[in-house]
Design brief:
The protein is mainly α and 488 residues long. It is built from 17 helices and 4 strands. Helix content is 70%, strand content 2%.
Length: 488
């Protein structure tokens, strides 16, 4: 994308400045981004969330497998969409292409108000919990201290993303290595207990007391969503991915295989050491695992896990900032969010908005409430994406599709996603109505800010003044013609 810069210093020779998001993300970076996002707080918290709902070790293992397969199939569908429409923006672009502006805005708003800041806030709070828990072994962590550390670490990650995209992707590789070390530690110790010490008591009668109700299974799905979420975020970065037609599906498939296998083995290791009662009573199951098995080195586990949670936050910042940037260039978010920093070539306005939204949600202390809110929004978006994927087969049958899946797959996934949303309304009515209310508020904002074109002059002047002030403060530039951008 090329724009004319009006912020050039005297003596600059070329009045035309190339302002673009560079193609700097390789296959290794892509795998590191996906694995780094997915393997975050989920595997260290979700075992408790799933077990709490289904009430048995056996059914919780079944739910881990089902959630893994479901998310893998969803990821394959996203690979088709990402190679067919290789534009940054991910699911927003796919829904926009299929159904037009209003459904696309609903997707954008759900990501903006629910999925992105809620998910990052939950991860930031989990980071704080793991770091501070060893300092408060016999009492509750002060809420203010929890929130302060959570906001501090995410502010640092946003600053890195604003400064340099390469730094952010390199950090993701290091963080991914750290979290794999943490999980490998859990796995080695767990299997030593099984093979070396013969500890198999916790695996006896695995389905005793199982709750097979539809509501319990639907809510446990959200903990599974949380644990596996992140496979879609590389689609937000397709415009910066080297050779996206080859590297996007490869990165998704490699990452999902790594994650599913790792999660299943890690859960076996947890159960080898901890009883269901110990897991349910633990605010940080992996820390409890370390306390039971690692002796004086138990402090290492929360540190490694906290580092791994940083990967989730960093990857979310990378992905969602591009989504909101694209949404702004389509005229569906404030204009300044569609600008790029002149020298650093990063979408810093979008990153700073994500930071502000996350700070608001971090003030709550209920991690599982945040997980359920994010899960509801994610299931709603998936329903729209898969419906759009099916509709595009009929709307644009001749569209080149490097990957072409059986049409039955997105149809089934669309139905399953819708059923999860419907069951959640039945099981968690208050949270669902709250989320629906936020979406309704977004539609009102859409009518006022986007549909209403002939606003009074004083309102237009205020909006222009705000955008100009932000542009000057952040030294960011807009795209003159978003439709002419060559994302390839």
């Amino acid at each position: 994308m090329t724009v004319t810069s009006k912020i050039l210093k005297e003596g600059d020779e070329d009045p035309e400045v190339k302002i673009e998001l560079k193609k700097e993300i390789t296959l290794l970076n892509g795998v590191a981004i996906i694995v780094g996002i997915i393997i975050g707080s989920g595997i260290f918290v979700s075992p408790v969330g799933i077990l709490k709902e289904v009430d048995s070790i056996g059914l919780s293992f079944v739910m881990w497998i089902v959630c893994g397969l479901y998310n893998a199939l969803c990821a394959v569908c996203y690979a088709e969409l990402g190679t067919t429409i290789p534009e940054s923006g991910g699911e927003y672009i796919y829904i926009y292409r299929a159904f037009g502006e209003v459904p696309a805005f609903c997707c954008l708003w759900i990501n903006f108000i629910l999925i992105c800041p809620v998910g990052i806030a939950a991860s930031a709070l989990i980071f704080s919990m793991y770091i501070l828990q060893p300092l408060f072994p016999d009492c509750n962590i002060p809420d203010n201290g929890l929130a302060l550390l959570a906001t501090s670490i995410f502010t640092l990650l946003v600053a890195i993303n604003c400064w340099n995209t390469k730094w952010a992707t390199k950090i993701q590789v290091v963080i991914t290595a750290s979290k794999l070390i943490a999980l490998l530690t859990v796995i080695v110790i767990g299997f030593y207990y099984i093979i070396g010490l013969g500890e198999t008591e916790n695996f006896k009668n695995p389905f005793e007391g199982s709750d097979f109700s539809a509501g319990a299974i639907a809510i446990s799905f959200y903990s599974g969503f949380w644990a596996y979420s992140g496979w879609s975020y590389l689609n937000f970065l397709v415009g910066e991915l080297v050779d996206p037609h080859r590297n996007l599906p490869r990165a998704i498939l490699i990452s999902m295989v790594i994650v599913i296998v790792t999660y299943l083995i890690a859960n076996v290791a947890y159960v080898a050491v901890l009883t269901p009662a110990q897991m349910l009573s633990s605010p940080a199951v992996a820390v409890t695992f370390g306390e039971h098995t690692m002796g004086v080195m138990a402090w290492l586990m929360p540190v490694l896990i906290a580092i791994s949670v940083c990967g989730t936050m960093n990857g979310c910042a990378l992905g969602f900032s591009r989504l909101f940037y694209v949404g702004s260039t389509k005229g569906q978010l404030p204009a300044f969010m569609g600008m790029i920093q002149q020298k650093r070539l990063t979408p810093s306005p979008s990153l700073l908005v994500i930071l502000i939204m996350t700070l608001i949600y971090t003030s709550t202390g209920d991690i599982f409430f945040l997980i359920e809110m994010e899960g509801f929004g994610f299931a709603s978006v998936l329903t729209m994406v898969f419906a759009g994927q099916v509709y595009l087969r009929y709307k644009e049958p001749d569209l080149p599709r490097p990957i072409r899946l059986p049409i039955l797959l997105p149809i089934i996934l669309c139905i399953v996603s819708f059923l999860i949303v419907a069951l959640t309304f039945y099981q968690k009515t208050r949270e669902s109505l709250m989320a629906l209310g936020l979406v309704g508020f977004g539609l009102v904002m859409y009518i006022v800010c986007v549909v209403w074109k002939n606003k009074p002059k004083f309102i237009q002047q205020k909006m222009y003044a705000i955008n100009t002030l932000i542009q000057k403060c952040l030294i960011v530039l807009p795209v003159d013609d978003p439709d002419s951008v060559d994302w390839d």
